[in-house]
Predict the structure of PaaI family thioesterase.
Amino acid sequence: MGMNAEELQAYLVAEFPQAFGAGRPHRVVRVDAAGVGVTLAASEEHLRPGDTVSGPSMMGLADIAAYAVILAAIGPVPLAVTTNFSINFLRKPQPGLLVADARLMKLGRRLAVCEVGLRAPHEGDAPFRVTGGEELCAHAVTTYSIPA
Amino acid sequence: MGMNAEELQAYLVAEFPQAFGAGRPHRVVRVDAAGVGVTLAASEEHLRPGDTVSGPSMMGLADIAAYAVILAAIGPVPLAVTTNFSINFLRKPQPGLLVADARLMKLGRRLAVCEVGLRAPHEGDAPFRVTGGEELCAHAVTTYSIPA
Amino acid sequence: MGMNAEELQAYLVAEFPQAFGAGRPHRVVRVDAAGVGVTLAASEEHLRPGDTVSGPSMMGLADIAAYAVILAAIGPVPLAVTTNFSINFLRKPQPGLLVADARLMKLGRRLAVCEVGLRAPHEGDAPFRVTGGEELCAHAVTTYSIPA
Amino acid sequence: MGMNAEELQAYLVAEFPQAFGAGRPHRVVRVDAAGVGVTLAASEEHLRPGDTVSGPSMMGLADIAAYAVILAAIGPVPLAVTTNFSINFLRKPQPGLLVADARLMKLGRRLAVCEVGLRAPHEGDAPFRVTGGEELCAHAVTTYSIPA
């Protein structure tokens, strides 16, 4: 019922071309039992003075990674909507690539609760470490309502 | 020490040209004792399937309105950063204009806490009603850290 | 379908005797179109060093006021459960009476979203002012899931 | 500068006798590089109809575990105050013992951000797994302000 990385990327390119289409900055880079990874290649439009990635760009990345982890688990649910989104900004990220690692904390019939860690990736990274708290630049928790 | 609507608009055009510059969708429409109003003229880039305004567009609008209400109160603080942002999505907004009404709940030396109500404006609106809960499409609370 | 102040107080005494029973500190003081008011008469067990009301006591009061405003609107729903609770602590309250003013921001079929303002009451208070931000000691937003 | 498990337990018994004193339900069970563990032995006063642990009891446990992980890292800071507390309730816990595993996501000069996972412990548990999301009954994120 779920989707693998290729299916998820293709679905998001079709549904969110402005985020995942050709030349656009988001990409699915991982789907596995632990969750999903989505990257943002931050460029001019995502930066704030001081060459840091803007808050709304990070919120958009976290929101889309949370949506992706639900799609990966239960397949296309186009009407799923975010009901609650909460984020703590922990450190200023450098410009460049940001990775959002999302995992499901709860997948109920009506509500899904996801945790998302945002970090600047490093060579040799382990594939999934939401708990790499020392290096997170932001941490989000989000609730999606799943249509009946 | 604070800024009025013209000063605030001019400051944001200069600091966030990608949001407030010519042809861009954000605008300061109100600064008074109750807080500030910032609008988003939602267009193609802000929409999701179903012709509703995207969550990240609403989050960006709320974040910027919270920043604006701090600027209006204490003047330019370019290094103020969002530390926490929490939003509840209540109703799907129609495409078109969105208004964010922001007010300060606390303005301390180190932290400012702001409440933001998002709504589609109606003719004859009273100038400021965060509590118009029946009509809010989203409600956000955000904390800014103010540099020493 | 809803409940007035007397019905609500009686229901809460029966369902939460440890909070609303005889000699216990919580009480329903207002039910009207704007929402509900619930008080906590803070005593020894609710205080922290410095003679301030403890955070968990304030969280408990806000949670119960949010539950009360749902009961007031739709009548007894014993299985309603909090799914999300978020609070900002704004000022240290004095020991003594605390008032929680709760209102519904959304009452859907499955989810209710409530806003709660906590304040130390003053003589001559207007009956309901969540937006009296200058005087709030805490502000909470909470989501309840309503059973089908 | 920090505190080990014995020092932390002793400090909390002295500072919060109503929570950690003799016959009271909270206890520090772990302090290590990953964070701290605090337990609540839930009894009558913490239960709700349906024999589940009450929301406020879980919030109180999470708040105190977050405070404990800060004490463990930097030693006694009696004036540290919670500024923001956000919790998602994921599953109803059984009555009995609850464990709160807290870790620091950020320890700045002015703000500390902590993540807390609440779970019912099982025999043979690994010592620390905030990410054991499948088994968490609640997940909290909290911000403490550290006095200058």
In short: Residues 55-74 of chain A form the longest helix (20 residues). The CA atoms of residues 8 and 92 of chain A lie 29 Å apart.
